[in-house]
Specification:
By secondary structure, the protein is mainly α. The chain has six helices and four strands. It is globular. About 6% of the residues have low confidence.
């Protein structure tokens, strides 16, 4: 990755939502660095994000990529989290397959759950759910979508891409370990089971 692309990528919110029309923030950053896109295609970045991006593009001499500020079109990055209705989930794994940051855990025909601290609110999971059991709700985990959160989301996106490339048979892909701070699968599923028991009125 060249220096310009790296600097632009660092300015993007890392929600990996594809609302810009590209396959994630890195692809959008690459297009901007090559002056093949415009700077007002990132709704999660908001107006402030567009202003920062335009200033950066100007400082890099990428004036053709600078676009007029577009009105905010959607919630700010990190303000929403996906939630799964434990009573309705059928364990189809479709949401797991499309999550760009591995924020959903579960197994086929088993209850799925969202790791709230890793969810970017990208909304890619909701449309693929066949039973409409996923909703986006205001974040309640207290996570501030700061530089550290963006970096964490970017790293998880890279891990997912590495894993998918390795699964597809690319021999040169090295899959690195997941962040040590991530909650364990057993802890996530235990929490999901407690939620289901609560919904059903059963003791957890």
């Amino acid at each position: 990755m060249d220096a310009s692309t790296s600097q632009i990528l660092a300015r993007l919110p890392q929600t990996q939502c594809r609302q810009c029309g590209f396959d994630g923030c890195k692809s959008y950053a690459t297009a901007l660095a090559n002056m093949q896109s415009s700077s007002n295609l990132c709704p999660p970045g908001g107006i402030d994000g567009q202003l920062q991006l335009n200033r950066l593009l100007g400082s890099l001499g990428l004036h053709q990529a600078i676009s007029p500020i577009a009105p905010a079109a959607g919630p700010a990055a990190g303000s929403l989290r996906a939630t799964i209705d434990a009573h309705s989930c059928i364990g189809c794994t479709r949401c797991i397959d499309v999550c760009p940051v591995d924020a959903i855990v579960g197994a086929p025909k088993r209850l799925h759950a969202v790791i709230e601290s890793d969810c970017t609110g990208c909304d890619l999971c909701r449309p693929v759910c066949p039973v409409d059991c996923i909703a986006l709700m205001p974040a309640t985990d207290g996570l501030v979508w700061d530089n550290a959160a963006r970096q964490r989301a970017r790293e998880r996106d890279e891990l997912v891409r590495q894993r998918k490339s390795a699964k597809a048979g690319s021999p040169d892909i090295k899959v690195t370990a997941s962040p040590a701070s991530a909650p364990s699968l057993s802890a996530i599923l235990a929490k999901a089971s407690q939620r289901l028991a609560s919904r059903l009125g059963q003791p957890s």
